[in-house]
Amino acid sequence: MPTMVFEGGLAAGRSYWAPAQAALADVAPTVVYDRSGLGRSPAAPAGVSRRLPALADDLGDLLDHLGPQGPYVLVGHSWGGPLVRLAAAARPARVAGLVLVDPSDEACELLFRPAMRRAERVGQLATVALARLGLLGRAYRSLTAALPPDAAADMRAEGYTVAMTRTRGRELEDAAGDLRALPVNPPGLAGLPVTVVSAGRVSPGMPKAVRERATVSHAYRARQSPHGRHVVLYLEGDDLAPDLHTTELLRGRPVVCPRPDSPLASLESVGVDDLLSEPLIVMRSGYLMHRFTHRLLKGRVPSFSYSADGAEMGKLMVAEGLGVTVLPDYSVVQDPLERTGAITCRPLKDDTTTVLLVVQRSRSGPVTRAARDLHRIFVERAEAHRTAQP
Predict the structure, then answer these.
(1) DSSP tag of 262
(2) Residue 82 class from Cβ within 10 Å (0-12 exposed, 13-18 middle, 19+ buried)?
(3) pLDDT digits over 237-269, tens only?
(4) H/E stretch holding 230
(5) Which residues pair with 359 in a beta bridge?
(6) Residue 334 — left, alpha, or beta (φ > 0 → left; ψ -120 to 50 → alpha)?
(7) What is the pLDDT, as a whole number, of residue 309?
(8) pLDDT of 384
(9) Are the beta carbons of 279 and 304 closer than 8 angstroms?
(10) In the prediction, which pLDDT does 283 show?
(11) Is the N-terminal amide bond of 71 cis, ω within 30° of 0?
(12) Element (H or E) spanning 99, and its range?
């Protein structure tokens, strides 16, 4: 089983990844760490580069220390995306695959505009000022509240300090130059599997225009790998990128999926406390229902959990009596396991979330006949599914 090594975004320490580690605890070994100048790692001496190639070299040193042969799955968020690509290219034989979570990517032309440099400067000045006033943690209190208690405590103590802002400034020294260097000397990934995850949702740090272009660049990055996959996560209310033609296939509500003999099956609706009373089967990081379950639990961690690679595996694990899971209702109702009485579903108490299943393709460029046929089949099967619902 490959070891999963997590790399944070700009000036992001190890604590950020605590929920992912909890979800993967029964699936694979996981490693998080603090880059130089973050968390519990001392700052690099003055004059020592903290630009992207140097950060990738540091990650390579960590992998050497963990075991030079691997295998490793490298997971990089935001600025950690190009970082893990560089580290993987240095020694691809020890890397089993990459997961790029909302990565910064040189294919996104917005990252090279003067407005982005101004935003970086203003953001750095504001970060330093808030840290000196002791207010930076308040700006990120929702993020901190979603962490497990021990990680939240570490984040409050280590993640919002003036020392962190100095490291942030050093990592930002020439972000545009670091990205421009990548097309000149592309990181050779030797056909490694690459999964690129786009959050789909806009935020103050990712406004609509940037989100749209970022999602397009993520799709491009996935296409560069012969084993590439692009995952876009949507809940109702998320903005859909206009550069991608989006067709809604199904919409439904999240439900709890237990066996019929589970105590939860006797309830009319299931609350969070009820859900945590049973072993919980959680989708792996990168799946939409992983994000939803994490939001639903609000940092609470089940006493025992498994991780599943997709809904079909999760339903089989439920049928085998390993626990309960949370899935869209359209994934459970009329499923063969549900029709034979091996699994059932119950609504979540006080939850009104709508989950969308969509199929997307780029609006630009020619569309092959095979792609058109596949799109038509998806639409027809979705319509048949809706018609078959009671």
Answers:
(1) S
(2) buried
(3) 655 555 667 778 888 899 999 999 999 999 999
(4) strand 228-232
(5) 247
(6) left
(7) 79
(8) 79
(9) yes
(10) 85
(11) yes
(12) strand 95-101
